Amino acid sequence: MDLSVEFAGVRLASCLMNAAGALCVTRDELEALGRARSGAIVTKSMTPALRRGNPDPRYHSFPGGSINSMGLPNLGAPAYAALLPDLRRFGKPVIASVAGLSTAEFLEAARAITAVRPDLVEVNLSCPNIPGKPQIGYDVQASRALLRQLREVVTVPMGVKLPPYFDPVHQDATAAMLREAGVAFVSVINSVGNGLVVDPERECAVIKPKGGFGGLGGAMIKPVALANVRAFWKLFGGRMPILGTGGVVSGADVFEHGLCGASAVQVGTALMDEGVGVFERLERELGEILARKGYRSFEDCRGKLREL
Ligand code: DHB
Question: Is the pTM of this model over 0.85?
Fold first, then answer.
């Protein structure tokens, strides 16, 4: 089955890749993605300098999903820039996720990584885990101002990673802003921010930072992810490349993202649970579903969701 796709002008041998944050912080993790059947290597969101992140425990996986409050642990943009030539040897696109705790930090990280020309830059407008820092993607004006400045700095195709929206008004306003900003792709969704998972036996939260509040991922967030993929697919008339992220555990989940309009699909919680072997399993399961349904490629199913 042909699972290759064209995404924002970049050829991907497989439509599957890691979600930013999942097993992509260190050199070893990034090289493991290079060797795995991932269609691209997505980096952890990078800030201008190394960050150790929040105190442990900061990630917890449970039967329905996961909760995390990592606090942007990363090697710092200069270290990822230095690593990029080695990552290129795997012959697949590198997508650099860029973040910051201020506009100046976003610009500095973006400048450092753009200098070595990753294939794509994914601007993270949606980290929910920095105490005192709201998710930029929930503030249209702030997002517009930030993207306007990043456009001057980022000279490779630049997309945005958005938080989940729960009202069409917010998707409409965001889409209008993104159209004006001229983004090359949209990645939806980041984790569902500020959930709380409780262990009733120990009578405590399962993660330490922020009193236990953290971003939810995994199976439980799939309907929210699909709704956002679909909403942005429609708002952009099917002409905006969409990276679908959220709740991908099986090949059927990938197929559903494709039907809703995703051109390529990212895997977070399931990658954390299973390791990089997850890509091979998902490829096999997706290939079987597409064949059984009479599709000849993943691209053939894109956006084909029927409305009743
Ligand atoms: C972190 C979590 C996110 O969901 C994100 O988009 C960026 C960073 C984190 O806690 O490290």
Answer: yes
